């Protein structure tokens, strides 16, 4: 399984670059990351127009507010991160704006800690969660997930792989990972039990865990850790944004859909699913993914609760 387990993401390592050098801040910081020399998007996206038939599906209480309150952990470039001016930008942000426009609403994207987003949806603090969440059967017990993207897990190391890391055997290695992600769960629930069964040392601490993906990347660049695990688009983006300081080892594995988080049983899920499908059909979806360089994860159909595991 991939992506942020409560989520994984595309490293806002770009949010920590200046003059081509990765700026190292205090690892483990729980504050928001602001892009310095942030990743630039390529191309523009035409504004989506309202679809009356989809707008009619929006629940009255949402429609009356005129907006969709969308939660995103803005530390996962290029999916969601802060630009040089502190604005929340990225693929998920552009998609949120386009979805809201299709529904005759405005998107109000708010920065939130990743692990707080699903509880915030259930508590009606937010109406949508768009933060590179993997759609899982476990999540579907408490919220609905509208699929819109596909990603897998991957492993990165320092350039040249000085520690001869094998992506399939991380036993005993220091591995950086974002708290609450599927990769963090993978270490705890699968990799370390397998290490124990094989009579090998486990990954220390069930992974070196950080609140922000930016800190995960920085820990690897700084040499604090020997490898990092994250979503495949996050890894791919980190390689570009760290100017050759990192490399991917092994293949992408466990591909699965990202899902937009919606309150369980809400009619808003049907409206959002319809909006995503409409954006796919009219080409807006592709233009957004092309803009952020993540078109490899494009899907042709949006579904509600399509978890594979």
Automatic annotation (TrEMBL):
InterPro entries: Solute-binding_3/MltF_N (IPR001638). Residues 67-296 form the Solute-binding protein family 3/N-terminal domain. Pfam families: SBP_bac_3 (PF00497). Keywords: Signal. Residues 1-18 form the signal peptide. This is ABC transporter substrate-binding protein. It comes from Kitasatospora paranensis.
